[in-house]
Write a structure and sequence with these properties.
Rossmann fold, 4-stranded mixed beta sheet, 3 domains, GMP Synthetase, Chain A, domain 3, alpha/beta, 5-stranded parallel beta sheet, 689 residues
Length: 689
């Protein structure tokens, strides 16, 4: 197993105390100078892409490297009643996938030339399904034949789907059986829709019903196999895309209003992939577990990188409850993830290991030794402790992980450090947005002190910080400059589709994308996300608070599964709705009731949720965490309501990207929030967990 030849490793003499460099003479009033990556300060441009000037070149790199090796895999369904998946992955090779993308792309080009598809400003097609090999094959065909893909989140409500389809003028939609009925009900209102393509096999009766329905609305219906056959009969060569050609419109889910369609170009995404190959030793052969939603650019970027390296992508079953089972069968080497899942792995490992007696002592000793090694020498592996303690944790994800990434939200430094020693691999912390093709900053490989930061700007972009006077963040702050992150480079979007107002608000006249995230740049040149410009409110005494920042500060607690922090401008303090982690909450309930309560005993847990002792115990933990992370007094939550009903996309309290819909949560818990302010605030630190 060696490092892939496309990887550009960090120079042997790299100075980790200078991970980014400030360009001389670039400081202006109200902002820092311009920072670039310390290892590769020469800003990458299209000339750096060489053969990878568009997205199909990424797949073709893998095709040339691994023509007969596994490319896309899935676990076949072996029973529907009950639903059961095979204990293995079935694979398509790179050559087989290449043939399918060419056939499907030829069919798309044929339909457009005949006028049976198209009719909008752009040649857009819709994808409405969860992660699966067919999603990627359709997208690969779209890339190679000058079409523009638009993903419809499976968790979007019908209003948002209707808006996106009409806004992007989608004329052909690829849909799974799971979403087919929803599409049928929307079809009369989708102005440009002409063709529906079913991704799943269906019975003759179901096929007849679907075709009859389509004819009622003057729509054509194909199965995916039929469309591939049409392309095979009308074959044509791929259309070479220029770097500035639009690849996709990626609609970002907002907490209010209609989604915004970020324009992603071929060169932008190709540049993002190339930049990720700078500084990370990807080993081959590599295997990626695909579960991050392909509707979002983070998940897509991971798969583009895998293609570029000639690696294999195995898709999860679609059921989050089977994710660990999928991992144990697939045995991936790469695991890009999000804090919500990594926190669960961290918490479960600590619960299993931190127990009384000899077993607990061994676990604590192993953790202490490996953390000491990590923080003093950067050493990740340990012959003894890995064999007798951490191998069990590593097997949870299949036992072969060598690359792990955390992105999309902040994660506690302690969590990252524990996962590094548990999996004996470097864990990259990253920061990016849809608008930057998921790339902006990333921790430097081998930097043992990077936890809690997102590292320096990547080689594909440059950043600066601008003052946020309202929140008292400035470029002149000591010891480190602070302010809103602005990004510039090829990786940045051209703007939002048919939305000049939001485009102008996000991108200034010098081409800087204003992210809305607040950071400081530490003494090593690393970016540390500390706040958010949005969701700021003023308390009655005049103090400004950033609610998302406070939620992130508390979310590192093991007992917290979810938290919504609420502020009222007529009140002088904050309150919160807390959704506890059920395992920890069951332990707390057992302690209070002096009897064993399991996490599935919902009736007992619901009854104890309002117990003053429960509230006191959780408030005590919140208080300790607030002091640990340095929250100021007015930023600390002073009263809580404990709810066992999680925030979900189904109850419309989470966006499809799992961000809290503040307005909806406030409406849902209107009475509880009012009660929190009416009831006196007690000293709730007397009961300890």
């Amino acid at each position: 197993m060696g490092v892939h030849p496309d990887c550009v490793l960090i120079p042997a003499d790299f100075d980790y105390t200078k991970q980014s460099v400030e360009l001389p003479g670039t400081r202006k009033p109200g902002q820092t100078g311009i920072y670039r990556n310390g290892a590769w300060p020469e800003l990458l441009n299209y000339d750096s892409l060489q053969a990878r000037r568009n997205i199909p070149a990424l797949f073709e790199s893998g095709l040339a490297h691994s023509p007969n090796e596994p490319c896309l895999g899935h676990r076949p369904v072996i029973s529907t009643e009950p639903l059961k998946f095979a204990p293995y992955y079935s694979w398509q090779t790179y050559t087989q996938v290449d043939e399918r993308r060419r056939n499907l792309g030829s069919a798309l080009d044929f339909l457009w030339q005949q006028g049976r598809a198209g009719g909008g400003d752009l040649p857009t097609l819709g994808l409405w399904t969860t992660n699966r090999p067919e999603w990627q094959i359709v997208d690969l065909a779209s890339q190679a034949y000058a079409k523009v893909s638009v993903s419809l989140y499976d968790t979007l409500g019908p209003d948002a789907v209707e808006y996106i389809c009409n806004h992007a003028e989608i004329s052909i939609i690829f849909v799974s059986n799971q979403q087919l009925s929803s599409l049928l009900s929307l079809a009369p209102r989708l102005k440009k829709l002409k063709i529906v393509v079913g991704l799943d096999e269906s019975t003759r009766e179901a096929r007849h019903l679907t075709t009859s329905w389509a004819k009622q609305f003057n729509l054509e219906y194909f199965s995916l196999k039929e469309l591939e056959a049409l392309g095979r009969a009308n074959f044509r060569d791929p259309i070479i895309a220029s770097p500035d050609q639009i690849y996709s419109i990626c609609y970002t889910s907002g907490t209010t209003g209609n989604p915004k369609g970020a324009i992603l170009t071929h060169g932008q995404v190709a540049m993002a992939v190339v930049s990720v190959c700078y500084g990370v030793p990807f080993y081959e052969p590599g295997t990626l577990l695909s579960y991050l939603p392909l509707a979002h650019i983070y998940g897509r970027l991971a798969e583009f990188i895998c293609f570029n390296m000639g690696g294999a992508i195995g898709y999860f079953t679609g059921d989050p409850l089977r994710l660990l089972e999928d991992a144990q069968i697939l045995k991936p080497t790469a695991f890009p993830s999000v804090p919500r899942l990594l926190n669960k792995i961290y918490q479960a490992a600590n619960v299993a290991g931190d127990v009384p007696g000899l077993k607990g002592n061994i676990f604590r000793k192993a953790v202490a030794v490996k953390l000491q090694n990590l923080r003093t020498t950067g050493q990740l592996a340990h012959a003894l402790w890995d064999r007798i303690v951490f191998r069990k944790i590593q097997r949870v994800l299949g036992g072969r992980i060598d690359t792990m990434v955390s992105g999309s939200a902040p994660i506690a430094a302690d969590t990252i450090d524990f996962l590094k020693i548990a999996f004996s691999c470097d864990i990259q912390g990253g920061y990016g947005m849809t608008e930057t093709a998921a790339v902006c900053a990333r921790t430097t490989w081998g930097d043992a002190g990077s936890s809690g930061t997102v590292g320096p700007p990547q080689a594909a972009c440059e950043i600066k910080l601008i003052d946020v006077p309202l929140m008292k963040y400035t470029a002149q702050d000591k010891p480190n400059p602070r302010g809103e992150i602005c990004v510039r480079g090829v990786i940045c979007t051209q703007g939002y589709y048919k939305d000049p107002e939001n485009t102008a608000a996000a991108i200034d006249e010098e081409g800087w994308l204003h992210t809305g995230d607040i950071a400081e740049i530490d003494s090593y040149g690393r970016v540390v996300i500390i706040d958010r410009v949005k969701n700021i409110m003023k308390l009655s005494q005049g103090e400004y608070v950033a609610l998302e920042k406070i939620e992130n500060a508390y979310s590192g607690l093991q007992i917290i599964a979810q938290i919504y922090v609420h502020g009222d401008s007529l009140q002088d303090h904050l309150v919160a709705i807390v959704v506890p982690d059920m395992e920890f909450f069951a332990g707390l309930a057992s302690t209070i009731l002096k009897k064993l309560v399991g996490p599935s005993d919902l009736a007992t847990l619901q009854a104890v949720a309002g117990d003053e002792r429960v509230v006191a115990a959780i408030m005590a933990e919140l208080s300790k965490q607030a002091n640990k992370v340095g929250l100021r007094g007015f930023e600390m939550v002073k009263n809580i309501h404990v709810s066992l009903d999680p925030f979900t996309t189904e109850n419309d309290t989470l966006t499809p990207t799992l961000k809290i819909k503040r307005r909806e949560v406030q409406k849902l818990y209107k009475e509880e929030i009012a009660a929190l302010y009416k009831h006196p605030i007690h000293n709730r630190s007397s009961f300890k967990l």
